[in-house]
């Protein structure tokens, strides 16, 4: 069986013509693959820990730019402000759980927390893909989404170069 990790994914090169929604959907793919390992009943703690060690920085590299672009834009729109705030709250909870997991040594506690994190982020991604992003598409123009896409990619590049190395987990 081929090992599935975000690192093994080809580095995507988003063109400036892609809108924010396309970019976010693309960013969800490696997260979904790692979630499957993290919530698997059959995976060992070692496999789940390895998946988590890749998941946490991958999630942060996606979440922070999303907060700075999509959620900021949504919060400016009265009809989507609650959803934008909800996204921020969910990201904060996922980040908090990631920080706790980095310090968790107890087998049972780690296995429980990593599954909860996986299920929580999986639900968040499904909600974004099924409800939030289609609604955002209706409320925004192609030009706005392209501009936000460029801002997202810039924020992601800045995040990866300045913070991601500092936040990487030590194996």
Straight-line distance between termini: 23 Å
Q: What's the number of helices? A: 5
- Report the sheet with the most strands, covering strand number, pairing sense and barrel closure: none
* Helical/strand content category: mainly alpha
Give the SSE string. HHHHH
Radius of gyration using CA atoms only: 16 Å
Number of strands: 0
Low-confidence stretches: 1-16
> Helix content range of the residues, please?
over 70%
Described by the principal axes of the CA atoms, the overall outline is: elongated
What is the mean predicted local confidence, pLDDT?
88
What fraction strand?
A: under 5%
What's the structural blueprint in terms of helices and strands?
Elements (H helix, E strand, L loop, with lengths): L19 H20 L5 H32 L4 H23 L3 H33 L2 H26 L4
Helix pairs in contact: 1-2, 1-4, 1-5, 2-3, 2-4, 2-5, 3-4
Notes on the protein architecture:
- By secondary structure, the protein is mainly α.
- The chain has 5 helices and no strands.
- Helix 1 (20-39) packs antiparallel against helix 4, helix 2 runs antiparallel to helix 3 (81-103) and helix 3 (81-103) runs antiparallel to helix 4 (107-139).
- The radius of gyration is 16 Å and the shape is elongated.
- The two termini are 23 Å apart.
- 32% of the residues are buried.
- Mean pLDDT is 88; it is low at 1-16.
Notable traits:
mainly alpha
What's this model, at a glance?
78% of the residues lie in helices and 0% in strands.
């Amino acid at each position: 069986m081929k090992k599935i990790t975000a690192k093994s994914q080809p580095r995507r090169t988003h063109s400036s013509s892609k809108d924010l929604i396309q970019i976010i959907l693309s960013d969800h793919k490696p997260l979904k693959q790692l979630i499957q390992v993290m919530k698997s009943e059959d995976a060992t703690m070692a496999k789940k820990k390895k998946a988590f060690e890749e998941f946490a920085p991958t999630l942060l590299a996606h979440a922070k730019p999303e907060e700075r672009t999509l959620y900021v834009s949504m919060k400016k729109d009265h009809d989507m402000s609650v959803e934008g705030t909800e996204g921020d709250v969910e990201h904060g909870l996922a980040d908090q759980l990631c920080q706790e997991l980095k310090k968790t040594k107890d087998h049972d506690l780690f296995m429980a927390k990593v599954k909860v994190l996986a299920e929580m982020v999986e639900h968040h991604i499904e909600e974004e893909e099924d409800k939030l992003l289609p609604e955002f598409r209706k409320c925004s123009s192609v030009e706005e989404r392209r501009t936000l896409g460029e801002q997202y990619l810039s924020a992601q590049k800045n995040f990866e170069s300045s913070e991601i190395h500092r936040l990487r987990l030590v194996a």
